[in-house]
Amino acid sequence: MDLSTALAALKDGTLTARDLAEACIAARAARPDARDNPYVAFSAGLLRAQADAADIRRAAGRPLSEFDGIPLSLKDNYGTGTVCGGTWPVFAGSPRRLPPMWNQPGGVVSRLLAQGAVVTGKTRMVEFAFGGLGANGHWGTPRNPWDRVHHRVPGGSSTGAPLSLHEGSALLALGTDTAGSVRIPAAWNGLYGYKSARGHLATDGIVPLSPRLDTVGILALTADDLAQGYRLLTGTVIDPLTDPSVIRIGRAPVALWQDCSPGVVAAVDTALDRLTGLFHPVDSVTIPELDEALALFRRGGLAGAEIYGFLGQELPAWLPSLDAYVGPRIRASADVLDYDARVAFLDRFANGVQALFHDVDILALPTVAITPPLLADLAEPSAYGRANLMALRNCCVANLGDMAAVTLPVGTDAAGCPVGLQLLAPRGADARLLAIARAAAAHLAGDY
């Protein structure tokens, strides 16, 4: 069941919040393999308590909102505080529970709880969100469910978020996205994902990776569900586009189409060819200083220096125990001496990106350039580093350039793994981008 269907069922009384909670619990119980558990914390009792409270409110004619009783998962870097007399720990992908100060709800969680949303649990993540593949040396790396034979990574750093949707233990999943951490797992699991523009949704109450680049994101089963999730977090209704033919869609620069795995470009091109019947295509777009921005990202960007500084100041006891996937890269960022120059460059880069949207409404490109790698192929640090950078390459541009982004599933690659089409929009255009994504999804499904 998707979110939009559940909302309708709650409204007309054909389902209760407890019904939805029991379905989530049953879905979790049906997949007992601890290796593939999406969660670091999942409590059936706490899930039932929240659902029962929602049903009592609805029966009394006083639901907190349409979303009262809707089950969703939260990434393990979100604080929640106490809910229905219980709580979920915050590990942020590390082996140790973080101090209580990091389990306080920020603006996003406070709003969804005030709307009556039911938290199913806290989902797995890359340690301190510093990676795009989903690998974690402490908690293990779940399998990508699209390959039943080989152990492929599911994407990260919001690793467990797509798996909670795939198994049916949540109807919406919240993650964070600093360079692709919502869009990569969404794309690699055949789901829809949305990354907010910087500052559009509050990031307080979330363990930070990069205060400059961190954003809130949503993973969902459908484009309609993305729009509903956005309404839950903002109160804004995503209205249908009145005339999609005026939307100017431009092809991202060739650098973001190169070195893709077999079948990736073909799947995205096929989708774009079909979208020419809906939107107004324009020529390929030039992103000023893109090569320089990508080179900066390959050198660690801002995130490495910022997470090293955060851990050194706030959680120094966690530095020695960082896993082999993130530890060497974080410690290498201790020697960044040109941080201010990097910030100044990204300010200029973001301003140049925003200016290009005078001539185009959205940019289109593959969400992820590569097929989800086999976990066995990532054992060597150099192999992990190459795959991580390639997975993040097409997504990091949105964070560096201060754009909103969505990913839509558009087929599979030569390995039979899902491929995503990424659409980028300027800051301040989040709601419009989600409307465009809904129209694109409907058109690709033949319904528009």
From TrEMBL:
Protein's UniProt keywords contain Repeat: no
Source species: Nitrospirillum amazonense
UniProt xrefs under InterPro entries: Amidase, Amidase_dom, AS_sf
Keyword Transmembrane helix part of the UniProt annotation: no
Domain of life: Bacteria
GO molecular function: transferase activity
Domain Amidase: 27-434
Protein name per UniProt: Aspartyl-tRNA(Asn)/glutamyl-tRNA(Gln) amidotransferase subunit A
Keyword list, A-Z: Transferase
